[in-house]
Design a protein that fits this description.
Number of helices: 3
Keywords: Plasmid
Number of strands: 9
Radius of gyration: 15 Å
Structural class: alpha+beta
Shape: globular
InterPro entries: DUF4265
Length: about 160
């Protein structure tokens, strides 16, 4: 079960990473919607640590792809990556987080979930809920808002 707000006006963006050995992959795709000044990320991300759900980015066309080139504006969301022991446990915890804490979550299979929540300060409460549940095998902390961009600008 996932809850991104993708609609027919969403487009696919490619985020290329400057350090694939750090992120575990060379690129990640995401859904985004056109907004004034760029594209608003409309999907919780698993690999990217500097671009989050709700952020506005600038993208440039490279062949058939729209590639993220710059961060324009932060959207005020933070993302944790969670690995659950089973998908059944994940479904129940995610349902509770969505209802009680406005979380947006996306399953990446095998119990892996990217969980985005408004305001980084609130992520501590969500992490406590996840850990207290006892079904979590692993969880990251929130994205650091001060870390350098991890994608390769395309200009």
């Amino acid at each position: 079960m996932s809850t991104p707000t993708m609609t027919t006006d969403a487009v696919r963006l490619l985020i290329r990473f400057a350090n694939p050995e750090k992120t575990g992959t060379g690129a990640e795709t995401t859904w985004a919607k056109a907004v004034e000044g760029g594209w608003k990320i409309d999907h919780p991300l698993w690999y990217s640590r500097s671009v989050n759900y709700g952020d506005v980015v600038r993208a440039v066309r490279r062949g058939d792809e729209l590639v993220v080139a710059a961060l324009v504006k932060r959207g005020g969301w933070a993302t944790a990556r969670v690995v659950f022991a089973t998908e059944a446990q994940a479904e129940e915890v995610m349902r509770r987080l969505r209802f009680d804490h406005n979380a947006i979550a996306e399953s990446y299979g095998h119990g892996q979930w990217a969980v985005s929540v408004p305001a980084a300060a609130r992520l501590t409460a969500e992490a406590a809920i996840l850990r207290a549940d006892g079904s979590v095998d692993w969880i990251t902390g929130p994205n650091s808002r001060s870390e350098p961009l991890d994608f390769t600008p395309s200009d």
